[in-house]
Amino acid sequence: xxxxxxxxxxxxxxxxxxxxxxxxxxxxxxxxxxxxxxxxxxxxxxxxxxxxxxxxxxxxxxxxxxxxxxxxxxxxxxxxxxxxxxxxxxxxxxxxxxxxxxx
Length: 103
Description:
Number of helices: 4
Helix content: 25-40%
Number of strands: 2
Number of domains: 1
Strand content: 15-25%
Shape: globular
Distance between the termini: 24 Å
Low-confidence stretches: none
Mean pLDDT: 92
């Protein structure tokens, strides 16, 4: 999955660099994209996964900061942002991870 996401990010960068892009996905992809974009270690992203449930219809967003690095950098702007749901009076829900099967 990570290889496929790397390819997707390369394609987005090639064809839509400098534009706003919306990717709609589920929790595991949100975490995998964070892992890739933020250059996290496996332990860092697993810690985030253990301590958070990505809410349904939440927003994770990045801002491009041109002054970061040689070619700029995407910086996490929001994670698991649900204010628009709350403002609309909609329930904020999430689906917990499936339990790990006993070995």
